[in-house]
Design brief:
122 residues, alpha/beta, 4-stranded mixed sheet, 8 strands, 26% helix
Length: 122
């Protein structure tokens, strides 16, 4: 089973960055962003891939945070993983998310719920 890390909040800063906030106990410096995203249709989530100790960790972004994703996409904002321990930029986040959104629209392979929610918001 892959390790999962849930985003608990997403905020657009005055510096025009999207910060994906994770639990304060997580040491962000331990993770390497991989620049790839997946979809979890069952959990209605977007997943950004990170690596720690040569194993994948899923950064899970649940539906309730998607409005921040939508707003940041409209502005073309850079995306960062952040908490009290530090922060790091998530390369290719915007390109990967845009690709997934376009691929999901009208594509029943992602499941009716995922398709409907993506089409409705994005």
């Amino acid at each position: 089973m892959r390790e999962k890390m849930n985003v608990v909040n997403a905020t657009i800063t005055k510096e025009n960055e999207l910060h994906l906030i994770v639990e304060k106990e997580i040491k962000i410096a331990d993770f390497k962003p991989l620049g790839q995203m997946l979809v979890d249709s069952d959990d209605v989530s977007f997943i950004y891939l990170l690596e720690k100790n040569e194993q994948y960790t899923y950064l899970v972004i649940k539906e309730e945070l998607w409005i921040s994703l939508k707003n940041s996409l409209a502005e073309g904002l850079p995306v960062f993983l952040k908490n009290d321990s530090g922060h790091c930029e998530l390369p290719s986040f915007v390109d990967e998310l845009e690709y997934l959104i376009e691929n999901i629209k009208g594509n029943g392979n992602y499941g009716e719920t995922m398709v409907t929610k993506v089409e409705t918001l994005f």
